[in-house]
């Protein structure tokens, strides 16, 4: 596994066209399970962000309304090219997949009752879950560097999976706990 870390100085500054084509490629390649491919494209291929920047930005994007990758496209586009960059990134990300969804829906509506098609859909769902799990493991690496972040991750798992607290309440509790810990550290 390549664990190369890039510094902020090594980050590339893409043009609006590079943002459009980069996110269009991502939208085409990552149809349905784009997070693992987004990390690879944004961090390793294009070097627009470091792995730590990607993880931090994804954390912010997850608490915002809307899709994580759409939010990330907007944030990255805004960072490098302002509003034009944000629009280029989002349009690139959704253009080709939107056309493909329309075509696939037309096909699926004709063949959805065939058992082979149903099994294929179940297999695709399992593969998507595996990709998401693998990406989660990759994202743990930068998180493991900080005890506070690891503690927050553990509390999140406890609150969400075991106590089944709502997301908003979990976030409020975790923000309060983190602010308290950071305040104690400074004192």
TrEMBL record:
Membrane topology of the entry: Multi-pass membrane protein
InterPro entries, alphabetized: CHR_Transporter (IPR052518), Chromate_transpt (IPR003370)
Cell membrane listed as a keyword: yes
GO CC term (a single one): plasma membrane
Family note: Belongs to the chromate ion transporter (CHR) (TC 2.A.51) family.
Matching PANTHER family: CHROMATE TRANSPORT PROTEIN-RELATED, CHROMATE TRANSPORTER
Name of this chain's protein: Chromate transporter
